[in-house]
Structures are given as structure tokens and as C-alpha cells.
Amino acid sequence: MNEQGSPPDAAQSTALANLQKDKRIDLLMGILLRTGVLLSAAIVLLGGLLFVTRHPGPVANYRVFRGEPPEFRTLRGILGEARAWHGRGLIQLGLLLLIATPVARVVFSVGAFLYERDWKYVAVSLLVLALLFYSLFGGHG
Amino acid sequence: MTALEFTALIAFGSLLAGFLGALTGLGGGVVIVPMLTLLFGVDIRYAIGAALVSVIATSSGAAAAYVRDGYSNIRVGMFLEIATTIGALSGAALALYLRASIIAIIFGVVLLYSAYASYRQKEHTVKDEDPDRIATWLQMDSSFPTANGLETYHVRRVPLCFVIMYIAGVLSGLLGIGSGAVKVLAMDQAMKLPFKVSTTTSNFMIGVTAAASAGIYLSRGYIDPGLAMPVMLGVLAGSLLGARVLASAKVKTLRIVFSAVIGILAIEMIYNGFAGKF
User: Fold this and answer.
1) Of A14, A55, A141, the CB nearest to B220
2) Which B residues 173-232 touch A at CB under 8 Å?
3) Residue numbers of the domain that contains B238
4) A52, A56, A98, A113: least buried by Cβ within 10 Å?
5) Does A130 reside within a domain?
6) H-helix or E-strand containing B205?
7) What is the count of structural domains for chain A?
């Protein structure tokens, strides 16, 4: 580890201590991310199958940008469409879950740093979380 | 073209993009927008929305494997995510005011840089320097596994890296890409992190950055389910496949070829942008 064999400096011992604590947290975080992605992919796939089998007609025109109707861009609209088992509503629900996965990771980090009593990084992750919530619920239309 | 044919074609193209993106380390997201706009004639705003979603999927899917290996520096990543998320919010706001052709030109330029960065990408050894005051206060110094056991490293120049990360966030929010190339530049060149730590920490950060702008794109109606579905599933499947093949494949030639393809796409994006075809 230390090539010269000199006594490790303070920074180095913190580094090693951090690594030990972080190891278990990393593992849990990996499981969280993978579960979120696979679950959302499954929902998107289900919605996609419903969508293509029920829409035998020609493809929608993507050359001209019109923007999605409210049922595909608001939380309330997407939940309503998904509950009615509409293919595109389920796809959007899966995509919402996908977007929520990194957000869940940050929530998890807040908890993990609290557990480590690492107040600086509790503050850092709370700030990142606040920014994410602002983007998701800030009412950008 | 029927919806089924269109979906199958897009899914196949995205699969290929995700596969090559994982093999070469460029990420599948960068070629999705040129593919959708140049090949399929999709409006660039729909293309960016779909690409953004696929970026979250590949980043989160791959990060699960990376964090387990112990390379990524979670403290560095979390701290710099402040810069990338603020950047992503700015980029998504900027996308409202810029004309599609301007966005296409910026996209082309960033694409050219990504191709160049990937072409000259190589591992280099970092000479360990003295601890840095800010990095020490933020407890960023860490270690990573090498052939000779754990090796510790010091983190340098946090403020400079923070600024570059903000720019990476803006580009991500504006163009719907992960900006992996810029993130690696910031950590590799400015912070002097070991190369493997830079790439894996970058990947770890991409998901959060993309989620910040994806929320805005979704509520603005840029994410179309019929288009995002085959793109997201295709890129995700392709990148998982690519990561599996990566261990045994000789990627050097492939990386040069893929960089060249990206370079051509970039020039076409810039040309079409100036010609007002977007």
C-alpha cells in the first residue's frame, strides 16, 4: 500500500477507514440500482407489447414536434393511463420508475451517510436530493 | 411503415448502439440522437427525450457492477453531483430557448470531442502528490484495487473540477447525453484521479445527472412513449450484452472504427444544423 514504508499520513488512514465502511453500502446500492432498472424495463416491455399489438396502423409522425398530451407528461395522467392498462401509459410509468431509480439512490445515500455520522456528506446528498425534487416537481411545463 | 416495423427497426438500431457504446466505453446515448434524427427523420426534441431515458438505464445498470468492484469514489461522485444537477437544470432550461438547428450544431461539436477523447483514451499512471486542503476537508482521498493490492490516491483541484462538471451537466441537460467524456476529462485531468476511478465514478454520476433533466423533459412532453420504449429497451439490452463481451474482446480496432462513425455523424449533424434541416 505504502511504497516507501513510511508511516501513513492522516489522509491515508481516513481513506482506508472510508473504504471499509463504504464497501457494504456499495453492495446494497448496487442491488437497489439493478432492481430499479430491471423492474422499470419489465414494465416498459409489458406496455410496449400492449402498445404494438393494439396499434396495427401506421407509425406516429415524429418529424413534427407537437409535445405529449397531459396524460403522458403529468404524474396524475400517467397513473390514470397505466391503471387503465393502456400500453403507452404503462411505458410512461416504467420510465417514471427509471427516472426515480437514481433519485432513490440519493435518498439511500442520505441514509447511509447518516448511519456513518458523516454530517458533511449528509448535507451534500440532501442538497443533491433537493435539486432533483425541484426538477421533478418544480412545475416546468 | 407500421408501428410494429418502426419499433423493431428502432429497437435493433438501439441495441447495436448500446452494444458498441458499452464495448468502446462511449456509451450508447451519444449515437441515439444522430441515428433518430439523421436516419429516421425524428424531431431532435423527441430524440433527445428518448436518448436521455436510455442514458439513465445504462448508467444505473452498469453502475451496479462498477460499485461492487470498488473503483468508484462515492464521495467525489456525490459532491460533484451538486454541480452536474445544477448544470442539468440549466441545460434543460436552455433547451427551451435555443433553436433546434443550434442544438444540432452544439451536439455535433460535443460528438466530435467525444470521438476524439475516446480515440486517444488510454490509462496512465498518476504520480501521487501531497494531500490537497479542500479534498482532505471533504474526505475525498481513497484507494482502489490494483494488481499489487490497494493503492491510495489523493484528490486534487476540486474547484476546477466542479466548474467542468457544471458544464458537463449543462451539455447533458441540453443534448440528452451522459457527457461521460467531459466528466472523465474533469476527474482524470483536473482531479488527477486514477483512470479507472474516473471512468467508473463518471458512470455512477451519469444516472443522477440525467434524472435531473429527464424530469423536466417528461413534464414538458418531450418523452414520447412509442419512441422511448424501443430506444430504452434496445440500448439497455445492447449495453448489458456489450459489458459481458467486453472482458474477452479486442476493442482497439473497434474503438477506432466506432470513433470514425461518430465523427462522420457529428459532421453531418453540424452540416444539417447550418443548412437548417432541423
Assistant:
1) A141
2) 207-208, 210-216, 218-230, 232
3) 3-274
4) A56
5) yes
6) helix B195-219
7) 1
